[in-house]
Amino acid sequence: MRARTLPASGLVLSRASSSPLICCQCLHNDISNQIALQSRKYHPTRRKSASPFGAAVSAAQTIFKGLPKAPPGISVDPLRMVGKELKFLTKNIRQLLGSGHPTLDKVAKYYTRSEGKHMRPMLVLLMAQATALTPRKGRSNASSPVPVNDPISAPSILADNNPDLNPLVSSSMEAKYDFVGDENILPGQRRLAEITELIHTASLLHDDVIDNAVTRRSSNSANIQFGNKMAVLAGDFLLGRASVALARLRDPEVTELLATVIANLVEGEFMQLKNTAADEKRPVFTDETISYYLQKTYLKTASLISKSCRAAAILGDSTPEVVESAYSYGRNLGLAFQLVDDMLDYTVTDAELGKPAGADLELGLATAPLLFAWKDSPELGPLVGRKFGQEGDVQRARELVYKCDGVEKTRQLAQEYADKAVAAISDFPDSEAKAGLIQMCEKAMNRRK
Ligand code: FPP
Ligand code: MG
């Protein structure tokens, strides 16, 4: 089978399936190259002028003022950087979700009641700030902010009644944005941050139905609270309103990216329904087992993070190099984040997670810790094949994961991706936002929920 590599993503398109596969060897080489590259980039003698972004940085600094610099090596709290922005995020998201139907209004806003981690919007906002200091392409219309609430079609045609966001008062909404906002974050980037949270929340509403979840963020999950039908429909409603908001950014490239994320999420979820590509009864561990898992992980988790980081840079009119760096950062952080998620399922308690721990094996899922154990313990094959469905399977699988260091090996792989994410933005000029992005990688690695 011949394969074609997509250089920006590290994905390989297989001719036979034309679905994106992450090639194990490419990933391995990629990791080694990046580690070498990273040690060069972080060499203490590196001079600032060595940055390929060079002189354009100072020009950018004159346009985008007010970004404080963090000295190299000093970490900042990313929450502090964008905390003020995030305070308004939930309020704005709830406004986007207003419905004249009182029950739909309630179900759609249900997961916005409790504060989530807001990791995706935080990354978009930090990326917007960090790339504000990098070179711009200089599009002629780049300086005029996009009117993010203005409909494109006539409201009478749209017939989409949102009592919380009346298009006739859109200019006052804009004013609120300007009043609270950091001037280095454009209104379109701020709206993008909200869109990422809408898409993520929609996927959680659907995911909880698929997984028969009972809790989410330490409360009843939406499917338990309102039933499966309403939870699914509310997820659809979120996607609809996210799509409207996306269209109003008036950027086809960004629309293409975020619409593809939605398709990717579904593809990733479909892949997760099977533990291996062949879905045999007695599967044998091969390199493809890991490729399949990483491809699924990219689609399910890293796609939204990587494409929204890319979109943030595009909306900021960044150069192609900066756009690629933002994408690479998001892709690697996204992979690291999901690997840690899969690790935590084996290591923390329900109370810490705010949802049942150990759920993956119960759901029949073979994630990274199990796959590493399977590599050393072929006896896991039949258990994977029957999705740990026989009495004692889950317990036996868990024992083998611990015996074979599956958790530690997962952590190491996650660390490699986190390091690659840091390396991807190493040429960005030093700023608190860049330090915040680096800190997000550390937080992703050290989190307990
Ligand atoms: C959480 O996974 C779920 C996701 C990251 C994506 C789920 C995607 C879908 C259900 C496809 C439909 C998508 C849309 C946009 C409607 P998890 O079950 O591993 O995490 P959890 O433990 O938090 O539930
Ligand atoms: Mg789930």
Describe the structure.
The chain has 449 residues and is mostly helical. The chain has a single domain, classed as Farnesyl Diphosphate Synthase (Orthogonal Bundle). The chain is built from 20 helices and 5 strands. The strands form 2 sheets. A 3-stranded antiparallel beta sheet has the order 1-2-3. Strands 4-5 form a two-stranded antiparallel sheet. Helix 8 packs parallel to helix 11. The chain starts with a strand and ends with a helix. The N terminus is likely disordered. Farnesyl diphosphate binds next to helix 8, helix 10, helix 11 and helix 12.
Short description, anyone?
InterPro entries: Isoprenoid_synthase_dom_sf, Polyprenyl_synt, Polyprenyl_synt_CS. The protein has 20 helices and five strands. It is mainly alpha-helical.
